[in-house]
Predict the 3D structure of the following.
Amino acid sequence: MEFRKQLLGGHFALIVVTMVAAAMAIVALQLTANRSRSAFRQHHEDVVSIERVRRETRQLVDATRRYLSAPDAAQRAQLAELQRALDPKLDRLASRATWLRMLRGPQLEQDADTFIAWLSRAAAEPMTMDAFEKEVAWRRVVMESHFDELASASASHGEETVDDASSLARRAQIGLGLAMLLGAVMSLGLATRLLRTHAAQLRRLRNATNLANQTAVKHEKALEVVRRELRAPLDAIALSASLLRDRTRRESEREHVDRISAAVERAEHLLDDLDDASRLMSGQIELRYERCNTRSLMEACIDRFFARAKAVHVRLKTDCRDILSVRADRERLLQILANLIGNALELAGPGGMVTLSAAPQAPGIRFAVSDTGPGIRPEDRERIFDHDWQGPEHRQGLGLGLGLFISKRLVEAHHGEIGVDSVVGQGSTVWFVIPD
C-alpha cells in the first residue's frame, strides 16, 4: 500500500514537472514569436524614419537652393518651416543611435546640428551657387554615412534579438526533452505530442511570419515609393497655388486656383488614407481610449461637414435623443464617422439627406449614417468594406474605396461590428457598434 502511494506520488510529481516544463516551453515559444515580430517592427520603423529624414533633408537642401537662386519671403518662411519639422526627427534618430550604442552616435547629433545650422547661414549670408553646391555635397555625404550606419546598427540589433529569442526557444525545447525522459510512458507520450504539436505550430508560425513580413516589407516599400514620389510634386503644386492666390486679383482666376488647392488637398487625403490602410494591415495602429460623449462627436461632425453639405445641396441632420457616452479612441471614432458621412454626402446627391444617429445597443453604442441615395445592390453589400473592391459607385467617381475599408478595420480594432443595410432606389445605412 505504501509502495503504491509512493509510486502514485512519484508519478503525479513527474506529471506535474512535465506539465510545468511543457508550459514553460509554450511560453518560451510564444515569447520567441513576439520578440521576433517586435524586432521586425522596430527595424521597419527605423528604416521608415531614416528614409523620411533623408527625404526631408533633400527637400530642405532643394528649398535652400531655390532660395539662393531667387530669394523671397515666402521661400524664406518655407525654409524655416522645413527646418522646424526636421529638427525633432533628427533628434529622435540621434537618440535611437545612442540607444543602439553606435560608436558615432553622438557625432550624428553634432553633424546634424552643424548641417542644419550651415543651411541657415547659407540662406542668410550671401553665397554663390557653386560654393553652396561644393559644400553641400560633402556635408550630405557625411549625413548619408550616418544614416547608413544607423540602418545597419538597427538591422544588427534586430538579428541579435531574433537569435536570442531562438536560443531561448532551443533551451526550452531541450529542458522539455529532459523532463519528459524522467516521466512515465503516459507522461512521455503526452509531452511528445505536445512538443510535436507546438513544434509544428512554431514552424507554421515562422513560415507565416516570414511570408507576412516579406509581403509587408514589399507592400510598404511600394507604398513608400508612391507616397514619396507623389508628396513632393503635391507640395510644390500647393506652394505654387498659394503663391498664385496671393498674387491674383481677379475673382475668376482665384476660383481656378482654389480648384487646384482643393484637388491637392484631396490627393493628400488619399495619401493619408494609404498611410492608415498600410498601418492597419500591418497592425501598427494604437488606440488611445477615453470616455467620449456621443452628442459632442456628432456636433464635431456636423461642424466639419456643414459647408460641404451646403455646397452640394444635401441636408445634414443628427438624431441623438439621449446623452450617451462610450469608451473609445475619440480621434479614430471621428475618422470613422467622417469617412461614412463623406461617402453618404456623395451618394445622396443634390436635394438628398444624410442622417447621423446614435443609440444604445448591447454591448455598447450603435452609430449609423443614413443617406437617400441610390442604394447598394445585395450582391455588393458584403464586399464594400474590401480594400480592393470597386463597385459601380466607385467607378462613377462617387467612391466607396479606402474609407470604408479603413473604417471597418478601426471598428474591429475597437472589438466592434460594422455592417450596411440598403434598399436599392431608397438609400443606405452604414452602422457600427462600439462596445463599452
Remarks:
- The first helix runs from residue 2 to 69.
